[in-house]
Amino acid sequence: MATFLGINLFGLFGQLLVGLINGSFYALLSLGLAIIFGLLKIINFAQGAIYMLGAFGAYLALQYLGIGYWAALIVVPLVVGLLGILMERFLIRPIANEDHLYSLLLTFGVALVLQGLFTHMFGSSGLSYAIPDALKGGTKLPFMYLPNYRAWIIIASLIVCVGTWWMIEKTKLGAYLRAGTENPALMQAFGINVPLMVTLTFGFGVALAGFAGVMAAPVYSVSPDMGSNILIVVFAIVVIGGMGSIGGAIITGLGMGIVEGLTKYFYPEASNTVIFLVMVVVLLIKPAGLFGKEA
Amino acid sequence: MKLMNKTLLSAAMAVALTSTAAHADLSDDKVKIGVLADMGGVYADVCGKGCLTAVEMAVEDFGGSVLGKKIEIVSADDQNKPDVGSAIVREWIESKEVDVVTGLVASSVTGAVTKVTTDNKKIALIAASASNAFTTKACSPYNAHWTYNVVALANGTVKPIVQSGKKKWFFITADYAFGHALEGIASKVIKAEGGEVVGAVRAPLGTTDFSSYILQAQASGAEVVGLANAGADFVNSLKTAAEFGLTEMMDVAGLLVFTPNAKALDPAIAGGMLTTTGFYWDRDDASREWSARFKARQGVIPAMPHAGAYSATMHYLNAVKAAGTDDSDTVMKLMKSTKPDDFFAKNATLRSDGRMVHDMYLVRITKASERKSEDDIFKIESVIPGDKAFAPVLPACDFK
Amino acid sequence: MKISKFNIVLLGLALVAPFAFYPVLLMKVLCFALFACAFNLLLGFVGLLSFGHAVFLGTGGYVTGYLMMNTGLTPELGILAGTIASGLLGAVYGKLSVKREGIYFAMVTLALAQLMFFVFLQAPFTGGEDGLQGIPRGHLFGFIDLSDNLNMYYFVLAIFLFGFWLINRTVHSPFGQILKAIRDNEPRATSLGYNVNDYKWAAFVISAALAGLAGSTKTLVFQLASLTDVHWHMSGEVVLMTLLGGMGTIFGPVVGAAVVVGIQNFLSGGELGNYVHIIMGLIFIVCVLAFRSGIVGEIQKIVKRNFG
Prior knowledge:
The complex is a heterotrimer of chains A (295), B (400) and C (308).
Chain A: E1 3-4, E2 7-8, H1 9-40, H2 47-65, H3 69-92, H4 100-122, E3 138-140, E4 145-147, H5 148-170, H6 172-182, H7 184-189, H8 194-216, H9 226-241, H10 246-266, H11 274-285
Antiparallel strand pairs in A: 1-2, 3-4
Helix pairs in contact in A: 1-5, 1-8, 1-9, 1-10, 2-3, 2-4, 2-8, 2-9, 3-8, 5-6, 9-10, 9-11
Chain B: H1 2-19, E1 31-37, H2 44-47, H3 49-62, E2 65-66, E3 69-77, H4 82-95, E4 100-103, H5 107-119, E5 123-126, E6 143-145, H6 150-163, E7 168-174, H7 177-192, E8 196-203, H8 211-219, E9 224-228, H9 231-243, H10 246-249, E10 251-254, H11 259-264, H12 267-270, E11 274-277, H13 285-298, H14 304-323, H15 328-337, E12 349-350, E13 356-357, E14 360-365, E15 378-384, H16 386-389
Parallel strand pairs in B: 1-3, 1-4, 4-5, 5-6, 7-8, 7-9, 9-10
Antiparallel strand pairs in B: 2-3, 11-14, 12-13, 14-15
Chain C: H1 5-16, H2 23-43, H3 54-70, H4 75-97, H5 102-122, E1 132-133, E2 139-140, E3 144-145, H6 149-172, H7 174-184, H8 186-191, H9 196-222, E4 224-225, H10 232-245, H11 252-268, H12 276-289, H13 294-307
Antiparallel strand pairs in C: 1-4, 2-3
Helix pairs in contact in C: 2-6, 2-9, 2-10, 2-11, 3-4, 3-5, 3-9, 4-9, 6-7, 6-9, 7-9, 10-11, 10-13
């Protein structure tokens, strides 16, 4: 086997790839958070619970409606996004003019309710969801065996992330959106319905988490606390990337997946903590995050 | 501290021995059993509401009263947190007149709870915890550790695999006390049988993604990968092992597999795996009869802690009846001098250190083709006699 | 604080309470009340939302627990050591975090707390998932046996009153006035020549030390130090207590802690256990939407409107 400085290189490549797979989830989730914060200045602490909702959505759709994986990939994010729209309209809008921290506390409450509700209904020992037939099996790479579904995670996540980034940063729709949130009164005067735009943007950000949840269902166990475990990690990623930076969230998400993968190789016990260490260091050196603009 | 305990203990024994009389001598005029379990967390399937059901069945089968007084049951959710569990048990004993505590799943909770029960001289019937500490370094004259422990698991599962010639092992271990203990004892068994441990990796409790640990196991060059974890960790690690093709390259041994966990897995993944258990529902007529009654109430077949909780409660109540009192020292003495014998406990005895020694079973998870029903999960390969499964009594824990 | 009739009545109630309620539950309320008051000093009077305050509660607990188990220290010295340890940690963490504002401050405190969580999970002296178990309560000043619940209760009450008095003094001192000025208009405070970060830092250290005092005391009450106390959920819980009771009020956190601990205790037995999260979440939502001033804050408003 190829080794370098006593490190098994093949093993290391494997860990990097596995890190990239986890990073794909982080990227999807932090992208949703970054959109909601960057454009709407709402701190959505319910994003993890919504990710959980997406995974349960896939499970329930299959169990009770016979909707398979591929359809769920479209339907579940739409339903979840709709729930997000209701949440924005009836819970978050009333406090839109208060301090940001109130939206954090409110959505934290929403997360607790959702998690409690699902624990009550399904217990927390976890349910399993099968990998779709088309993606079973795997490919033998020189340094590892890559299951097809894991490869699909990377591809699907990259497509969605890059597509979203392009839409917000490069299209006219995105330009309206950014202008609308920076100067609502002006855009309103141009005849654009800003409140509706805010609601739809929130729905979209939430739908991304729902999408990530469906993606996660076949590989991780579907359980009510899957969101609470990942939430603070994803939050840390958004902060490291620079709150509100769309591209920053994507790159940092993938990057932190890799950092975590390396930690699992060299010091597995610390794998849950390493991201917070990075976050402390980044914030001390560059307070607005890696890709954030100084206020 | 230690000295004081001993003097207190002997004094209490003396009082207890003289007070054993025929008339009912129950504190607060009743016997109250506290069932502490994980009602909604990762061990809920293993010992949650099912343990409460099992204890209720024991009380009903006993007749609902002892020495003419009612038997009451209280229950609570410990959330797998030692602080929550010990606070509940403290309140039960100090202000709710609880005489005996059972259930007890997560070893960390049991450790904290048995400190409280011992301080208050109440008996703890440990039905579901795996750690062997409660009859060794944290032993107490008031502990009765029922169903199984890590030593029995390691002796039962690891020894026959090493003896069959698979000598190089790698461990994926849950990074907390239970996982460490299981890995440690299994490693000792492997070395004693002439095998070697080529590596181990410690995954945080509740890890969702095991892929990088599976890659490390693949690269280790081991013949067998031992999963020193339990519950959801076991299910997730095995699923990932199959996904990454590990199960094709190496043998995987689950060191602690409860029936609900095995049932949650695709038999194509788990079928054929060897593991050790303290009870299996489909062993004989008596176990089938009880399990059918349990399933009628709980909706699922019993896992080993459920059967253990029933058996322990029954043995306790029998001892209270025979002693004519619920005084812990007297009852415990009687529990240790009479042999438990029911559908669960075969060739059983509660030793002086509080370890309940009984037949354990080496089982194989059935393949899909063998399953006659959805509950046909294990096949018993061999019976492991209690003295081969458990470690001998330590002198420091020999509570006569 | 003037000694009013109201306060005397409250004190009287606190003195007889253990005869009506289970003392350990009361002690738990007092410990959390002190924790919430310490937290409120930052959130309510300086406007800083620390999302990692559990780390100070837990650090106090672990240090006290370790010393009580291994050195035979008397309880008052054990608690003092835990408090100092939390204060020192607060001095370091405060230095790193007070320059940040709003959400960044919350996230830095959270991240720093997670680092200590890792230490408490992995360090050999903390017992990992098991925590420190069977910590002796010991003899106060060497001769008052604290294993007696009543003795322990009055000791805890005394600690709580001391902490409460200290916070009250801080808030009403000139130092406290400057803190409030910073909360209300930071640029103005800066332009008046105050070194804002130094004031924030000092408040952070006091808050951390008092949170440590609460944690040390709680560890003695339950004879246990565990990861629950350093987990970020605990940091969320103290926010809930403060918000529910009324942030920026003196009695609010006490009321909030009593209500939250009461609800948890009520629900933990039996069938309703599963509803704890749901109910806590609903309280959060209702508080934020309907009464952001909290229970005490709303009562004060009513009193002011009708009698003021």
